[in-house]
TrEMBL record:
Family statement: Belongs to the neurexin family.
Short name of any one Pfam family annotated for the protein: F5_F8_type_C
InterPro entries: ConA-like_dom_sf, EGF, FA58C, Fibrinogen-like_C, Fibrinogen_a/b/g_C_dom, Galactose-bd-like_sf, Laminin_G, Neurexin-related_CASP
Disulfide links within the chain: 917-944
GO terms under cellular component: membrane
Protein name, entry field: Contactin associated protein-like 5a
Organism (species): Oncorhynchus tshawytscha (Chinook salmon)
Main location: membrane
Fibrinogen C-terminal domain mapped to chain residues: 570-622
Occurrences of domain EGF-like (ranges): 534-571, 945-983
This protein's encoding gene: LOC112225652
Subcellular location: Membrane
């Protein structure tokens, strides 16, 4: 009998322990087992005494419950195994309750509910609680125990007495605190209270003044909202008062603490352990409230300027307003307090919840009691985060008919199954979503030939039946038993219910779930009684950079659309960090968004990247680029101009710090206007640097010299002065210079003070900020002693860390970097010649991610490594090998706690050190200066030897530089370009009816992107991502540019629509319409070159056309893909890239291979050259759809049967290229130049950029982001075909 055993486990605080209660001060002092007389609340059998608690083996859910006789403040617990045996508990939950009925699970700092227990029967495991518990009852629920023994437990609880002043509000009552004067005006307020609410709505505090001030604290939808305004008449008369909201699920009938601290306009709002800082609205600094403050409600609804709200229903304790104990005054019936219907003891309602734990196996079976009126009526309440789940299923008297009430797509749906094929459904309205974490009431009733479904207080939905309906013997709530059960009619439609239920009523008879728990009524599985285990996983919000958090019962998800970031927590920037990085990807001059600190807190900014010179210049403009004439200014009333740049000051500082060199031109012309006083040399005009400091030099890089450029160059018009303007002549003079001391740039302000004399004037223009180089790209260190390392400050990466770097070595193993804490650590190492391992532990056990290369990595060539860890997942990328990815456990520690130095190239133990070179080490957007630290470290040298270690780009367009004994070569195998330095386009034009098919054969592991070494606490997952890039030129529309298709009718299509606009189609769910977005309506079928880059990660799609970006939402179109496919493509395609493959180039280089099928005459072309001949092809072409080496004519994109039949046992990718040439002009391909190794070292201008500069500059730059339907199932299946 479980109930009897529960009673046996009910323990009481002994009289001896009563004397051990301590003061509030001692309650928070260090707790020690050596001083039990100060802090020990309860000792069951004594941690060092004999005995202990052990439940019967037949108990389904054993627990140990303690009754402390009154509410106490508990600060620590300790456990020990059963004396003299092999029984102990290795993991447990801690629950608390004021009544012994409604329980709440205690969660530690990271939201972890599990406590680590004992490993033997004698050891004591002590846990100091991160936040104390104020409660009467405690319950220890064993989760794991000694597998060779049984549950055994001795416990001690530590804390002190807790005193509180309590008031009970019945939903119609309130407390009024009247001021001694007409109004109360304060510049500082401190309001604190604790509350326990029975409903999700209710006013806790309200006050207002006639001038427009107000303060309101209320519960709204289970969240706490604070409305605060200081002397803002606009908000007084407006209907949209803005609230600061915090926390959630506050209607759980448990105590929550609130603290409001205000000083002037600065406010801190704290709810439990969460704090939000904000600044109030309004003009004033004081809060002026007239006559009174009301607590628990607004007693006069007709009061002018107030807004009606529900009164609070529940209990409030320890209510203090600026040090005044309001409840104490009310209990003593002081005249300044009016207490209407308020009592001073907290009544405890018996609303007991049950938690359905499993989305696959939880269920509750209750008998269907007889109804005197016939039919049946069921009522219950539920709350959940999940958008799907079965709520109720019952068999009807007329078999095989049954009724199902379920949550489907966040709405309530009632289904009447008349047979296996025939059913009828009704649903609630679109706006009635029930997976919002709030309590909802659902009822189902039948009368006559109708069954009625009602949700909350909304209008009912009715379904007509063909016959009178009577329920079967049992009602199944939350799910169905396993199929082996005799009641096999009950089937979970999608998922079982995961959430909480309460207040079950069948035919107007309430159901006592205690009887269910005791086995005396119904049946159940995977339930937790007397508690609602709902948990808000979006509090705190772990989505970075403004990402929006949503959640299910066991996971949270981040919507990164519109943020400029991607990844599970919106951590990674979708932009490159610099113009230099864009050039390395093959981009040419244009507008680009850069993110100088990567995944750091700074957002992206738009700059112009000028890549047409020997250097790559980053250009940042400001608000005053035209020449400005200045007259009438004096030193006392100077002319002042502040410059606002297209980037924030923080972004500018990051950009300047990252650059090798920066400069800014100052054009300054003058007539009878001096820069310096000729008598004492004091400045009459100056400029202000990025740090706000006044600067008086007007050229060069020597900030300590008060001179102009002419003095530095020794060519001033009057050599008696350092500036031409100081000659003070009636004719125009010029002191133009270039500021190049980058620590002072950019110019933030200019001040001119000598233009008030007759004929005096100045003309100035401050140019844009121009920077070149990226210091981080080639910042390297060489390690030549195994015991050597570089050390840096402790890694700040509690919640997220992304680590990226390049390495080259000949050693078989070595640690790249390591940082450790007391227990936690993080490490990246070369564990064997072909394996890179990323290891860490945040308290959930060791996690290892490993990437194994098919070739050795200790080949003295550069290899790229990127490791990332967040609260959601961990990943490891090495070169172009498949990403290794592991998802974090939904219940576990989140924070990586480190306390030692970060070691690079070795470990603190000076063992397993790295021998070789590391460069471009970046962690969370911060690039580490390895060279500077290497200069003062023995065994390490700055830089790295070799031809491929310099800042000059020897290999372009993602080509890889390969070291040779006497030079280098460029590996262009993973680049869409060819030639000695990967700069030559691979462009193709086709004559009439020509086509080429190339089949890529890859192993299954490459296609799957799954980790081959998964930890027990992390489960493997597949990350769907694609990168596509190509260049095209055409005058035809519609046109098919590229299609990626699977054999299950999934596809990605890039087309030109009928009007020539670009469209990207993603059809990842065969049962839904495709996601389609068009970045702009203008035509790209204009005969100009256009560069397309597409990146997809999960549900986020990012598009770059030529050089810039805009955002646009997805749309749906019909038949566009089929029309474009039927027209094929007429034009020129070049430099086609898909992920790490260059399919067009591979097809051309492998003619004659069994993997290549060529139809018609294939002609290499040059997309960038004008025409000198005319060729006419009157027939339009078809896009070919081929699989392997079998040609299938006239096969539609949706004909999955034909394509699927070709590959039944082979996993491969097919790429089909079709371009048909008609009425299009080309010029003969220019002769290729032979380029030597030495020439490659000095040639940095891209030929492609030179040929296309005019076309790129004439085209408006834009970028599109598309958000696909489903973030977790938008994965293309493994067998793919690629069509171009």
């Amino acid at each position: 009998n479980p109930n009897a055993q529960l009673n046996n486990a009910l323990l009481f605080l002994s009289d001896k322990a009563d004397s051990h209660l301590c003061s509030h001060y001692h309650c928070h002092s260090d707790l020690s087992l050596s001083a039990p007389s100060c802090s020990e609340l309860f000792s069951h059998s004594g941690l060092r005494g004999a005995g202990g608690w052990s439940p019967q083996v037949t108990d389904r859910q054993p627990w140990l419950q303690l009754d402390l006789r009154d509410r106490m403040e508990v600060t620590a617990v300790a456990t020990q195994g059963r004396y003299g045996g092999s029984d102990w508990v290795s993991g447990y939950l801690l629950l608390f309750s004021d009544t012994g009925r409604a329980w709440k699970q205690y969660r530690q700092e990271d939201g972890v509910g599990r406590f680590v227990g004992n490993v033997n029967a004698d050891g004591v495991v002590h846990h100091k609680l991160s936040h104390s518990i104020r409660s009467r009852f405690l319950r220890f629920v064993p989760l794991d125990w000694n597998p060779s023994g049984w549950v055994g437990l001795r416990v001690e609880v530590y804390g002190c007495a807790y005193k509180s002043y309590v008031a009970d509000f019945d939903g119609r009552s309130s407390l009024l605190y009247r001021f001694n004067q007409k109004s109360m005006s304060t510049v500082k307020d401190v309001i604190s209270l604790s509350f326990k609410s029975r409903q999700a709505e209710g006013v806790l505090l309200h006050g207002e003044g006639q001038r427009g001030d107000y303060i309101t604290l209320e519960l709204h939808r289970g969240r706490l909202a604070l409305y605060l305004n200081l002397d803002d008449t606009r908000l007084r008369f407006s209907s949209g008062r803005v609230a600061v909201t915090l926390s959630s699920l506050l209607d759980d009938q448990h105590w929550h603490s609130v603290l409001i601290e205000r000083f002037n306009k600065q406010v801190n709002l704290t709810v439990d352990t969460h704090t939000q800082h904000f600044r109030t609205k309004g003009e004033g600094d004081s809060l002026e409230v007239d006559y009174e403050l009301s607590f628990g409600g607004i007693p006069l609804p007709g009061k002018p300027g107030t807004f009606l709200r529900k009164n609070f229903h529940g209990c409030i304790e320890n209510l203090y307003y600026n040090g005044i104990n309001i409840i104490d005054l009310a209990k003593r019936r002081k005249p300044q307090i009016y207490s209407g219907n308020v009592t001073f003891s907290c009544s405890e309602p018996q609303l007991v919840s049950t938690t359905f734990l499993s989305s696959s196996s939880s269920f509750l079976s209750l008998p269907a009691t007889l109804s005197a009126s016939g039919g049946f009526a069921v009522r219950f309440q539920f709350r959940t985060w999940n958008p799907d789940g079965l709520l109720l299923s019952t068999r009807l008297a007329l078999e095989p008919q049954r009724l199902e009430l379920q949550i489907s797509n966040s709405r309530l749906r009632l289904t009447h199954h008349m047979s296996a094929q025939q059913k009828e459904e009704v649903s609630t309205g679109e706006g009635q979503q029930v997976n919002d974490g709030l309590w909802h009431s659902a009822s189902l009733s039948s009368r006559g030939l109708q069954v009625t479904m009602t949700l909350d207080n909304e209008p009912s939905s009715t379904m007509e039946l063909g016959d009178h309906m009577e329920a079967g013997d049992s009602l199944y709530f939350g799910g169905c038993p396993s199929s082996s059960s005799s009641d096999s009619y009950c089937e979970n439609p999608t998922l079982a219910f995961q959430g909480c239920m309460r207040l079950f009523s069948i035919n107007s008879q309430p159901m006592d779930l205690n009887l269910v728990h005791q086995g005396r009524l119904g049946d159940y599985k995977e339930l937790q009684f007397d508690t609602c285990g709902i948990h808000d996983r979006c509090l705190p919000n772990f989505c970075e950079h403004g990402g929006q958090c949503s959640q299910s019962w066991s996971h949270f998800y981040c919507d990164c659309s519109g943020t400029g970031y991607t990844g599970a927590t919106c951590h990674n920037s979708i932009y490159e960090a610099s113009c230099e990085a864009y050039r390395l990807t093959g981009s040419s001059s244009g507008l680009f968004s850069i993110d100088p600190d990567g995944s750091g807190p700074l957002g992206p900014t738009q700059v112009y990247c000028n890549m047409t010179e020997n250097k790559v210049w980053t250009v940042v403009i400001h608000n005053s680029t035209d020449p400005v004439r200045v007259q009438g200014s004096t030193l006392q009333k100077p002319y002042i101009m502040k410059f606002n740049y297209s980037a924030s000051p923080e972004q500018l500082m990051a950009l300047v710090a990252r650059s090798e060199q920066c400069q800014q031109e100052v054009v300054y012309s003058c007539r009878k206007s001096r820069l310096f006083n000729t008598w004492d040399g004091s400045p009459l005009s100056w400029w202000v640097d990025q740090g706000g400091e006044r600067r008086t030099y007007w050229g060069g890089f020597l900030p300590g010299v008060q001179q102009c450029s002419c003095s530095l160059e020794e060519n001033c018009m009057d050599m008696n002065y350092f500036c031409n303007c100081d000659a003070d002549t009636d004719s125009w003079a010029n002191d133009t210079g270039v500021l190049s001391y980058k620590e002072h740039l950019p110019v933030s302000e200019i001040v001119i003070g000598d233009t008030n004399r007759t004929g005096s004037e100045a003309l100035y223009r401050i140019g844009p900020l121009r920077c070149y180089g990226d210091k981080s790209v080639w910042n390297a260190a060489s390690f030549y002693q195994e015991s050597s390392y570089l050390h840096f400050p402790t890694l700040q990466a509690e919640l997220s860390a992304d680590i990226s770097f390049y390495f080259k070595t000949s050693a078989p193993s070595g640690v790249f970097l390591e940082n450790v804490g007391l227990k936690d650590f993080i490490r990246v190492e070369l564990s064997s010649p072909s394996v890179v391992t990323f290891s860490f532990d945040v308290g959930n056990g060791l996690v290892d991610l490993a990437v194994k290369s098919h070739v050795p990595l200790n080949d003295r060539q550069w290899h790229y490594v990127r490791a990332e860890r967040s609260v959601k997942e961990a990943s490891l990328q090495v070169d172009q090998l498949p990403l290794r990815f592991l998802e974090a456990p939904s219940e576990g520690h989140l924070r990586l706690r480190l306390n030692s130095q970060l070691f690079v190239g070795g470990t603190a133990a000076r063992q397993r050190g790295f021998l070789g070179c590391i460069r471009t080490l970046t962690i969370n957007g911060v690039t580490f200066n390895l060279e500077e630290r290497a200069k003062m470290t023995p065994g390490v040298s700055a830089g790295c030897p070799g031809h491929c270690s310099g800042s000059s780009s020897l290999c372009h367009n993602s080509g890889r530089c390969i070291e040779k004994n006497s030079g280098y070569v460029c590996d262009c195998s993973q680049s869409a370009y060819g030639g000695p330095s990967c700069k030559e386009e691979v462009s193709v034009s086709f004559n009439r009816e020509s086509s080429v098919t190339y089949t890529f054969q890859e192993p299954f592991s490459v296609m799957q992107n799954r980790s081959f070494q998964a930890s027990s606490v992390y489960r493997g997952n597949s990350r769907a991502r694609e990168n596509m890039a190509f260049i095209f030129m055409t005058t035809q529309s519609p046109a098919m540019l590229l299609t990626v298709s699977t054999f299950s009718q999934q596809y990605i299509a890039v087309i030109l629509a009928r009007n020539g606009s670009l469209q990207i189609w993603y059809h990842l769910h065969v049962d839904r319409r495709p996601d389609v977005f068009s970045p702009r309506p203008s035509s790209l079928a204009d005969g100009h070159l256009h560069r397309i880059r597409i990146h997809r990660e999960g549900k986020d799609v990012y598009l770059q056309v030529s050089n810039g970006y805009i955002y646009k939402r997805c749309e749906n179109f019909d038949e566009e893909v089929m029309q474009a496919g039927s027209k094929g493509f007429i034009g020129c395609l070049s430099s086609v890239q898909f992920n790490h493959m260059a399919p067009l180039k591979a097809a051309l280089l492998n003619r004659g291979s069994s993997l290549v099928s060529v139809r018609g005459h294939l002609v290499e072309s040059n997309c960038g050259a004008p025409a000198d001949s005319t060729t006419s092809h009157p027939l339009s072409g078809k896009c070919c759809y081929q699989a392997a080496k079998t040609n299938k004519d006239n096969v539609s994109l949706h004909d999955s049967a034909v394509i699927g039949g070709v590959v039944s046992a082979v996993i491969f990718i097919t790429l089909c290229v079709v371009v048909v040439m008609t009425r299009f002009l080309y010029q003969h391909r220019q002769a290729r130049r032979d380029t030597s190794i030495k020439e490659k070292e000095h040639q940095t201008n891209l030929e492609i950029a030179c040929r296309r500069e005019a076309a790129y500059q004439a085209e408006p730059a834009y970028r599109t982001e598309c958000h696909l339907h489903d973030s977790h199932s938008s994965t293309l299946r493994d067998n793919r075909e690629y069509y171009i």
